[in-house]
Hints:
- The protein is mainly α.
- The protein has helices at 15-21, 24-27, 31-47, 53-72, 84-96, 109-145, 165-190, 209-215, 225-230, 233-259, 287-310, 324-347, 353-361, 367-376, 381-398, 407-413, 421-424, 427-432, 442-458, and strands spanning 150-155, 158-164, 192-193, 220-221, 267-268, 350-351.
- The strands form three sheets. Strands 1-2 form a two-stranded antiparallel ribbon.
- Helix 3 (31-47) packs antiparallel against helix 4 and helix 6 packs antiparallel against helix 19 (442-458).
- It is elongated and about 100 Å long.
Amino acid sequence: MAQLWGGRFTKETDQLVYRFNASISFDQKFYRQDMEGSMAHVRMLAKQGILTEEERDKILEGIKGILADVESGKLQITDQYEDIHSFVEANLIDRIGDAGKKLHTGRSRNDQVALDMRLYTRDEVLETEKLLRKLLKVLLGIMEENTETIMPGFTHLQKAQPITLAHHMGAYFEMFKRDCSRLQDIYKRMNYCPLGAGALAGTTYPLDREYTAKLLGFYGPMLNSMDAVSDRDYLIEYLSAMATIMMHLSRFCEEIIIWNSNEYQFVEIDDAYSTGSSIMPQKKNPDIAELVRGKAGRVYGALMSLLTTLKGIPLAYNKDMQEDKELVFDAIDTVKGCVALFTGMLDTLRFRKERMNDSARHGFTNATDAADYLVNHGVPFRDAHGIVGRLVLYCIEHQKALDDMSLEEYQAISPVFEADIYEAISMETCVNKRLTIGAPGKEAMERVIETYREYLDSHVRTV
Ligand code: ARG
């Protein structure tokens, strides 16, 4: 057992207590950030004359050596240490002797761990956004190719009105674009440095917190030392953004599962992204989509878990906060894995355009347009609605689509119909006349696609 404390204790820690308390099994994940934070701290201490330049250089060299050895696998992080902070400090003292004992001057593990976690998640927030942007690119590609691919749009999972595949994909483009902007917002709010807050009340050493913050790429130091060690809002925000991403992915997966079903056959999931059954040779299952949908629950759970952990914690640091790590790490790994896999699945998905078109044609998705035709010929909308209702009933009885009825059949129900009804209710007309902003009409869609292209091309890091 290697601990950083013990001076005021007369007994060894109970083994079970030690293991219960220790965090090295998971906080080793930010070993690099811990060492980067320590190096910045040491540079600042020397600049302020709290350490000599010689001490600084010795410590920096020592930490760099530890970092290199950990990265090359020469030095193992083992559970003989309580946490990653103890691991680094103990190894440093082993390597460079007494100078190593000065590393922790003007610092507490409370501000140290707050820093490490912030540094780790800060990178991950950007990584998550990067993965989402790859997904957006794939979505844009599908949109560009499918502004004329007609399919039914649904409400209540009942065919409603014809749309295009580009339009449907565009809805997801909007969702994931919002997710990207949420991540950027989080980055902007979280990018302030807790280091220098000490245990909770700052320190009497003349630390230059602005300097440390700048060295570590923060906008500046956090302005209240108690808040600095106990703020986990950024993790709640990140988990909430990740839960929303999973919700979006899950809805998309649900649609792919439905579209891939024997009944719909709108899409075929690529063999590389499907799995078989151990007993039913004919099966090709959408397991990946189902797993992504399933993992949404896990990420929601992490958000709820951390909210609950934090709700009763008095200021400032309390050990409960150690519980933030495993669930945030797990959520990050889950979300990144799911976004990447989903992107691959979508990129290789085969759309059965004929089936989609056929489905749109055979579900009375143009019934609203038939009513609008009558309205344009002077029939009040309520009457038009009734007439088209009778048309639909007639078609169901005779197993026809509206487009397949003869003009005589139309006129038997309402004499207002003329030969131009066919043109008026063709799928292409139904879609392409819908030209309001955000509607599926080809011209409207192309304007939106252009803005998406610009969004993806021009996107420079705004954080
Ligand atoms: N492992 C602790 C955590 O993750 C580090 C901070 C420990 N500080 C303390 N006072 N016990 O929160």
